[in-house]
Amino acid sequence: MEKIRLGISSCLLGENVRYDGGHSHDRFLTDTLGQYVEYIPVCPEVGCGLPVPREAMHLEGDPSSPHLMTIRTRQDITERMLNWSIKKAAELEKDDLCGFIFKSNSPSSGMERVKVYDENGVPAKKGVGMFARVFKEHFPLLPVEDEGRLNDPVLRDNFIERIFVFKRWRDLLKEKESRGNITNFHTRHKLLILSHTPAHYRLMGSLVAKAKEFPVKELHARYKGILMEALRLKATPKKHANVLMHMMGCFKQQLTPGEKQELLELIDKYRTGFLPLVVPITLINHYVKKYEQPYLKEQVYLNPHPLELQLRNHV
Ligand code: SF4
Q1: How would you classify residue 140: left for phi > 0, otherwise alpha for psi between -120 and 50, otherwise beta?
Q2: What is the spatial distance between Cα 103 and Cα 267, in angstroms, rounded to a whole number?
Q3: 3-state secondary structure (DSSP) of residue 42
Q4: Which H/E stretch holds residue 126?
Q5: Global pTM value
């Protein structure tokens, strides 16, 4: 698979673009995830023509449409930043991004819970950075996260899983837009979707079953919308355990009583928090190879992202 293209706040790559002339280098993003992705760096404040170093700024006013103000000299940067952000979001379309990683808490780049100050100077964590808001409105289905939330193993696993799914989806469209392609994609992603939300799993199953009723373009748009909404929902140990049991059922004829017992015990230990997900998954992968289970062999759920990232060792 060619590298996945992700937008990223430039300071996270170690570029000295912060207001104080420094950076916010994140080693996991550059050294580990960076092996699988190609980053497109974006610094909205430098991009819209502000110097480095520069005066610190923050958001003020109504959290749903705040102003971007410099703190000491009270300059209003709102128009300048908004105009630049709209132009930049349109420009990024050509880059085929599969996601964006934002710098948390920034009045320009923070994707949620950014401080917005009221007329009394009291902050409320209710805002979205000005560029991040424009970007999210322009690309509503694209996976986005910030580096702070990516320290949470569950959110990290979820985000990285989503960018890999998005990339596979992009590649599929490049190949050919057809109903057959969608059916194929859905079949391979069934258990992954089920681990996030049984309700969307059913909805998508019925959409694919009625594929002939929709023009191909509409089918793709509908499917993609539900898919990305589904994957945003957290996969919990209970939902994973349900998928693991489902997979165990696929080996009904092959597993010996001892193998069944061992797998059941591992699934239960995972569900109750004594083992990470990678343990029962590794055993199932072993059985898939041993018994050549054709349906499970194709399931993205068993290998949603590179093993080297060790994401399932911590969830
Ligand atoms: S948080 Fe955003 S605006 Fe601030 S330095 Fe980083 S990339 Fe630039």
Answers
A1: alpha
A2: 37
A3: strand
A4: strand 123-127
A5: 0.96
* Amino acid at the residue 146: D
Where is 9: in which H helix or E strand?
strand 4-9
Region for residue 230 given its phi and psi (left: phi exceeds 0; alpha: psi -120 to 50; beta: otherwise): alpha
Contacts of 72 (CB under 8 A, 6+ apart): 55, 56
Q: How many other CB atoms are there within 10 angstroms of residue 97's CB atom?
A: 22
pLDDT of residue 210: 96
Q: Is 45 in the pocket of ligand 1 (CB under 6 A)?
A: yes
pLDDT tens column, 205-251: 999 999 999 999 999 999 999 999 999 999 999 999 999 999 999 99
**Cβ(57) – ligand 1 distance below 6 Å:** no
Give the length of the chain. 315
**Which atom of ligand 1 lies nearest, measured to the CA of 41?**
7
How far does residue 19's CA lie from ligand 1's centre (Å)?
8
